[in-house]
Fold this sequence. Notes:
The protein is of the alpha/beta class.
Amino acid sequence: MSDTIEKVKCLIIGSGPAGYTAAIYASRANMFPVLYQGTQPGGQLTTTNEVENFPGYPEGVTGPEMMVQLQEQAKRFGADIRDGWVTKVDFSGPIHKVWIHDNIEIHCETVIISTGASAKYLGLPSEQHYLQMGGGVSACAVCDGFFYRNQEVVIVGAGDSACEEAHYLSKLCKKVTMLVRSEKFRASRIMEDRVRKTENIEILMHTETVEVLGDGQVVTGVKVVNRASGETREIPATGFFVAIGHQPNTEIFKDFITLDETGYVINTPGTSKTNVPGVFVAGDAADHVYRQAITAAGTGCMAALDAERYLAAKE
């Protein structure tokens, strides 16, 4: 345990658009926020090559570049941005206790959770290669579908989100091939019917991805296997979309913060408030619907304003 305990007015756990925006607003409100960036400084956007749908960037911007700019903006107003991640919390009493790397103890008047959610991937080496290269693998059709206009793409998934993203892609792409691993969809009937009725969506049931094919730089196709027949085939594609869900990064809060069945923080509707007074949530840790940079930034603003009002009410 640490010999000295640091006391802060506002601790922000996690970075990305939500955390950095919360830091900007909290700094300007003289809350002297301390932000720990987490295991992936900048969040999911650091794996996004091009961001063209965030307001204020007419020529687009890379995800990492945007995160550096947001971080620098927060620093300009006095936010204390630190490397490191939270390993334990105790929100059981009036003082919110947080530990960094198990040995740095911080007592906080307010806490903003902006730990985000991590997209689930298949885990194939080829998939991870092209994901890191920014060469055709994505977990967000709304974010990246535009780059595949009039091209052929493949999407993996069988739930409502996969159907929604496949339908979205069908409006942009020449052809969408949807891979469903089992014999039936997990999606609601209305969503399944929507993709089945869309002419340029081909649905392959019992089908599993073997390898994402490419030239080392960009995706050129997908090798799949039919789990029923054992037959393999290659599907030409320039984009490979994975829509098998997200995992919110909220495990360390589960003993104190109310989560839904999949681990997302449950907040009071219309606010960033959690079930613990003085603890707020922003971004994808609570958002399983929109999951966009702009919505994350908006909730970061809300969390900082809610924290400011909470502190003012205590004075």
